[in-house]
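I am hoping you can look over what I have pasted underneath with an eye to the fold:
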Amino acid sequence: MRLLGSCARLRRTFAVTRRGHHVRIDDAKLGGVVKSLDPNSIELRITSAGPKGSKLRAGKGINLPDAALDIDLLGSHSEDALQFAAEGADIVGLSFVGRAREMQRVSEYLDQHARAQVGIILKIETRRARLCICRGYSWPRSVASGQPE
């Protein structure tokens, strides 16, 4: 199977992907390993699919759990969301958490601005993130990961 990088963001993602990296598509309904790649495409060896096969449709997510993406989780759009959460939320959800410092920044903001302790739920997408976060930061909130050991 070949994935084509039809936009700049996908091509930047391909640039940090390596042969042998795992790829999950459509919430892991289809899985594979990178067989070969170039700047515009990745060729996969499919390693998992549904019992009767899997149909890939447009608009499905691609997860690259082995790739080391250098993306700041907390962009400028996050300030409004954190302010809103501090004013009235009981729980904040963070997706694609990759580093302990991201958790720490959100935790510190909420500790300073929230009316009460706000819970944080982390969606940890990569093995690297799970190891980095679980080893790199000790805090009183719970961390859960769906990543395999």
Q: What stands out?
A: The radius of gyration is 18 Å.
